[in-house]
Amino acid sequence: MSDDKETDTASESSYQLSRHKKSPSSLTNLSSSSGMTSLSSVSGSVMSVYSGDFGNLEVKGNIQFAIEYVESLKELHVFVAQCKDLAAADVKKQRSDPYVKTYLLSDKGKMGKKKTLIVKKTLNPVYNEILRYKIEKQILKTQKLNLSVWHRDTFKRNSFLGEVELDLETWDWDNKQNKQLKWYPLKQKTAPVALEAENRGEMKLALQYVPEPIPGKKLPTTGEVHIWVKECLDLPLLRGSHLNSFVKCTILPDTSRKSRQKTRAVGKTTNPIFNHTMVYDGFRPEDLMEACVELTVWDHYKLSNQFLGGLRIGFGTGKSYGTEVDWMDSTSEEVALWEKMVNSPNTWIEATLPLRMLLIAKISK
């Protein structure tokens, strides 16, 4: 899994969008003991789709780079020269496979990810690459430039090796000294995810709990949860002006493939209208306390999907079927929607909720 892409398996990465409105997925077996073991193993393997692996390696060493605004091209040029004395991801052989990634950061989120090539088996990589951003100088002055160094392992996982952030609002563009190559010490991430609070847009949706899908049946039946994904608003643009977004739904703790449904992809807009209803059955009243609807929005590009933001709608108790889980972390707005749905059966409850950063549980096969 790369630092901010999710490539499911090869069979799904060029996914066929399912048109099925109904995909039976019984939750009832989740409270059984066999469900519990798979559940605890899932909660133990939560990984951030967004940002690779933060905590494991110490941050040390320096990076040498220079920036310049080229007026004639209306471009920011970031000249990444080299790093030295990086942390070793492979402790035994004392080496890493480092590359440098840059973003421009503003109040509206991050844009324009650029990367150098990976230099293998070294703690002192030399890049001598220019990363270019087409951007008006006035807009540039509202940005921060973030350079981060990452180790990419053979499984395409990334480990954070340090970062530098420059505030371009206060940068003196006329000073010739500022165009020279300079060494900067690499620093720790300021927060586990520095962009936690950025705006990721919103989702307009409605939920309905149907306790008795077949009225008048003598035998006790299990209920259904209906999820109507209406539209998203102001999704972030992570690759210039392109966006091809879709919504994926999983009912946690069931991370099996049968639990997942998705909308079609809608291209060329930051306000995609999906109008897609998903139905999940097998809900007993007690399952409503333990389950959580995870809705994630993705940008589909070539063979991979980039995470844009998500919701987790449930009671947010931190526990499911007696086990402590990371994903039971609903915000107060998300909890309010779930409570209203549970308390008003057979009624569509609508809400517009802000999308947020999520740590995504690995999908079990």
Automatic annotation (TrEMBL):
CDD domains: C2A_SLP-1_2 (cd08393), C2B_SLP_1-2-3-4 (cd04020). Pfam families: C2. GO terms for biological process: exocytosis. Residues 1-35 are annotated as: Disordered. PROSITE patterns: C2 (PS50004). InterPro entries: C2_dom, C2_domain_sf, SYTL1-5_C2B. The keyword Cell membrane applies. One of its GO terms (molecular function) is neurexin family protein binding. It is found in: Cell membrane. It comes from the Eukaryota. One of its GO terms (cellular component) is plasma membrane. This is Synaptotagmin-like protein 2. The gene is SYTL2. Residues 24-35 have a biased composition (Low complexity).
